[in-house]
Each structure stands twice: as C-alpha cells, then as structure tokens.
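Worked Example 4.2. Consider the chain below.
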Amino acid sequence: MSSNVNQLNISAVSCSDTFNFKKSMLICSIPILFFFIESLRVNSFASLALIIMHHFNINAYLYAKISSAYLWGNILFLIPFGILLDRFSSKSIICTAVLICISSNVALGLSRNYQQMLIFSFIAGVGASAGFILAAKLIKEWFPPRYLAFMVGILVSSAMVGGILAQTPVLYFIQHYSWRMLFFVLASFEILILIMSLILIKDSRNHQIKQSAKQSVFQTIQNFWYTIKCPVNWIGGLFASLMNLPVTLIGALWGQPYLQTVDHLSAATSSFIVSLMFIGVIIGSPLVGSLSDKFQSRKLFMILGAIASLILSLSIVYITIKSTIILATIFLFLGLASSVQSLGYTVVSENNPLHRIGVAMSFTGMVVMCGGALLQPYIGMLLDQNRLVGAAEDVLQYGAVDFQHAFTVFPISFTIALFLAWVLRVKGKQM
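Applying the procedure from the previous section yields the following structure tokens:
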C-alpha cells in the first residue's frame, strides 16, 4: 500500500524521557474502569433475559432489540465522540459520557414498559460509546510503543471481567434483590468514576498532543476521510468485530438461554460456563498482545485465533456434548481463541498517527459494535421464526434445533475473519 497511513506508525507516539508507569496506569485506569462498568451492564442482558421477557411479556426478537439498542447508541455516536476527542480535552469528554450513563442507568431502573427500556438502553449506549476510544487514546498518549499491545489487551480484558460479573454474580444479585436495583448500583459506581475523573484525569503530556486538540474543522473532516479510506482500518475493525461475536452474542445475550435449552443445564451452571469464556478472553488478550510483540507478528496470531475459533464453534453448534466439563473447557478455549480480537485494535492503533487516533479508534469501535447490533436481533428473529413453525405462542419455548440453526452465524463469521487476517497487509516489522 502506498499511502503513508498504512505504514506502521509507531514513531507517532512521542514518549517522554521520564516515563512513569504508575502515573500512566493511574490516569488510564479511569476510562478502563468506565469501560469495565459498561461491559458489565451490556453483558448483564444475558442474565436478565428470561426475567425481562417474563416481566414485559415480550419475545426473543423484541428483547434482543433492547440489547441491540445499546449497541446502536454506541455505533451512531462513536464517530462523533472520536472527533470531539481529537479536538477537546479527555477530561471534559469522559465527564460528559459518564453523566449520560449515570442518568440512563437510573432511567432503566425506573422503566415501566418495553418502549422505555428500549429508549433508555439506546441513551446508555450513547454515553458508553466514549469509553473505549478514551481509554485507547490515553493509552497511546501515556505509554511508550512497547506497551501498546499489552495495554490494549488489558483494556479488552477489563471488558471481559465485566462480562464475568454479569453472569453468575448478576444472576444471584437480581434473584436476591431485583433487576431494577442492578441499574441503581451501576449508577452509583459511575458516580465514583465521575469523581475520580474530575480529580485524576490529566490531558496531553506533551506539546504535540496538545496541538492535536486544536484541529480545524477542515482537518477534522480530512482525518475522517483518511480514516475511512485506509484498508487496514476496515480489516482491523471487521476482524475484531467478527472475533468479538462470542462476547456480544453468547456472553451478552444468548449464552445462558442456549445452555439451559440445548444442554438442559441450570441457570447457575449456564452462567458459570459462559463466564469461563470471558475468563479465556481475560487470560488471552494480554498474553496474545505480549506474544505478538515478542514474535513481531500480529498476523500470525490473528490467523491462529480465527482457525481455533472456527473449530471450536463447529463443535458447539454441530456436536452434542453431554459432559459439562468438556462443554466448560470448550467455552474457555473459545474465549482464549477469540481474544485475538485485541490485535485488530492494535493494528489500527499502530497504523494511524496520534492526531487521528481518536477518530480511527472510534471508527474501529463502530465497526465492531455493528456486528453485535445487527446479529443480536437477527438470532432472536431466527429463534422466533423456527419456534413459530411448530410451537405454541410461548416466548420461552425454544428447541435445540432452533439454537443450532441460529448459531450457524459463528462458523461463517470465523471463516470470514480468517480470510481477513490472511489478506491483511501492513508495512513495517510487525506484520
């Protein structure tokens, strides 16, 4: 590729001679914590599925729309937040985003009908859209290049910790308290994040970064144009989106209902097995980042992760597994394999200069969120479509064949991800 934007632009990060790991980690931990809380919230829709469907008397498709509304809020506002982040201070952006999320959490807890949950879930996604790009930009500002893949792995892992807590812990919480109380508790934690942001978040640590906040409107438009015409940004975003589908489809929504229906497991056992997938991503993300740094190759590990995910997804969809231990092991390894999604973000970050990193990472996040936003309701539609053929009008009556048919999206998606990793071409040593 002839464009300079496609070159491995590690030198774009201007690191100070006196790098302070503790200070950098403290500053970056705030948006990472925010990203973690929002991941807990969106993944909790899996634990809330049967309860909310009963409470509002809705089917799988309508319930999936509540979850996907959150993702659409992410998608539509990732680019605007990315542009604002390249022009204004990180502190002002994160405070605005957290305030939106606090308000939406309270509103979700007070919702009285399906329509209200749909609207407030969308608003929540709007605020949450700033979390990832804030963390990604601050990581690139405050850490030298040798930490980049590792820190992006930590960022992805933080979302997976939220995914774990959204399974069994959230299930027990809503059983002992209520689903409404869950949203109030999340709002309380985000109030603490707001206070920490006001006190601890510091903006640009060098003149080059400060200058990027003063871009003209023309420069902003130009940055966006360069971002969308860069093939690496599309490939990295699409690869991360496809490899993230186990999280957005199994972990965030359909994992527990699938295991309860197909494998006849209890709610507690199902949530535990799904949480193992998140543990796999937690372990794999920083590990894959470190190994790809050590072997100086992103592409190799992207290919291996896609192949492993394809094999594991085929075993889940087409093989009847009666052993809970084997099933749990497969979910754990699926998490490990799909953790290579973090390399998609890393490739985008490395191939865009610092003054364009906000819009580039927001574009990548938008592409990633599109996968879940489109396929969550699509799977719900497939489930309802097959159920209605021979089943009574009961929103909870789904069979193993229904899930098997709907889950064919996984091997198809991983095959496409493998192709994208294979054709990826970036100049520089970290191919």
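The longest helix spans residues 21-56. Residues 1-17, 388-395 have pLDDT under 50 and may be disordered. Compare this with Example 4.1 before moving on.
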